[in-house]
Structures are given as C-alpha cells and as structure tokens.
Write a structure and sequence with these properties.
It is built from twelve helices and no strands. With 245 residues, it is mostly helical. It has one domain.
C-alpha cells in the first residue's frame, strides 16, 4: 500500500462530497434535526430520550454511510473511474483505505455535529465519557461504509443501490434495540438480533450510558463491530476488479 496514493484517493472522495452541497446537508444537518425532533417528541420522558437519542447517534452514521458509499462507488464503477484506477499502480488496499479515511472523516464530522446538539443543547446524558460514544459511532459508520462498498458491486443503478437498504440496513435498525429491547423480542428474533453487528454497537453504547468508566464489555462489543468491518471490507475489496467488456 502506498500512503501517498491512499491519501490522494481519500482527498478525491472528500472533494466529491464537499462539491455536493445536498450530500453535505444530508450528512451534517439532517441527523441533528431529526434527533432534535425526537427530543421534542419525548419531552416528557427524558430518560427514554437518553436511550433512544444515544442509539440514533450511531444509527445515522451507519445508515447514511451505507447509502453514500454504495452510491459513490456505483458512480465510480459505472462511470469508468474505477476501471481507469485499476489500470494504474493504485492497489485495492489503497482504494479501500482511502475510502475508509474519506467516509470516516465525513462520519466524524456528522457525529461531532449531532453529538454537540444532543449533549449540549438537548440535554442527552450518559454516565460514561463522551469520547467513547464518539468512537463507537465512528466504528459503526465504518461498518456502514464497508457494507456499502460490498453492495455497490451488485447494483447497476443508484435506485438499485438504495433498494438494498431494506435487506442490509432496515433489519438491523429494527432488531438492534432502537425500537424495542432485544431481550424482550421473540426467541428466534433474539437469535437474529445477536447475529447482527449493529446490535453490538447498541450494547456498547448501553455500557457507556450506564457505567461511568469504560468497561470490558464495551470493548468486547466494539470488537465485534470492528470484526464485522474487517469482514465486510474484505468482501467489498474482492469486488474491486476490472470489468472491461
């Protein structure tokens, strides 16, 4: 891997994102606004908002990074950019790490804005440190990025890329504990929930919410999400190949 090529790739993707003002607004403004709306809805139940708002801080980066990565990679595949890059000294690892740096930076900015609004303006409260929440959200966003990288290989249009969300994203949002505690679901659904990486991101956030210090359980849950990032990235990297007719 060449660090120079990796950072060139990351810079190119970041410039593409910054030039798309609607995407910038989607990344930075929309999550904070929705969390603010949820806070207003739960105005009489601040403890419920503490739990729901905290999960949303990780759910939004996961969902948006999946969507943006899959569409961005699809454009590069169908537009011939990826084809041209694969004929240069740029390696698969350069591309994958470059994408991770770019989308990780976008996720960090999104989390920073949403967390600032949630913690300092909406009164979101956790017993544990804020930096742990930030770390979990970034890792969760990288998981969304890796899934988007993988899924982009199976879509030929942007609409098809979005159609994969009900398969890869929505079930995880429903079963991770955002809507209903996983331990109160039907037994077979609990088994499905335990197999989904987003569930472990929520468990890690719950550890931060309940404990003043970071715990071994939090690191263990976060390690599961990191493992999912690695697996999805490897699968996604395997789809980065020349497809000349």
């Amino acid at each position: 891997m060449s660090p120079r090529i990796t950072f060139i790739t990351a810079g190119r993707i970041l410039r593409q994102l910054l030039n798309d003002h609607r995407t910038v607004g989607l990344i930075l403004a929309v999550p904070a606004l929705i969390i603010a709306l949820i806070s207003a809805i739960m105005d009489e139940a601040p403890r419920v908002f503490d739990q729901t708002g905290l999960i949303l801080l990780a759910a939004f980066p996961f969902m948006l990074m999946f969507m943006i990565t899959s569409i961005t990679l699809l454009r590069e595949r169908t537009g011939g950019t990826l084809e041209r890059l694969m004929t240069t000294p740029t390696g698969k690892l350069d591309l994958v790490v470059g994408y991770a740096i770019a989308f990780g930076t976008a996720a960090a900015a999104q989390t920073a804005v949403a967390a600032t609004v949630a913690f300092w303006f909406l009164g979101l409260d956790t017993a544990g440190p804020t930096w742990a929440v930030f770390l979990i959200c970034i890792v969760t966003a990288l998981f969304g990025m890796a899934l988007g990288l993988f899924v982009s290989a199976f879509a030929t249009t942007e609409f098809q890329a979005i159609q994969f969300m009900p398969v890869f994203v929505v079930p995880q949002l429903f079963l991770c504990g955002l809507i209903w505690p996983a331990d109160q679901m039907a037994g077979w659904l609990q088994g499905v929930s335990d197999a989904l990486p987003l569930t472990y991101a929520v468990k890690a956030l719950t550890e931060v919410q309940l404990n003043p210090d970071v715990t071994g359980d939090m690191w263990a849950d976060l390690a599961v999400v990191l493992g999912a990032v690695v697996v999805a990235t490897v699968l996604g990297a395997a789809t980065l190949r020349r497809r000349t007719d």
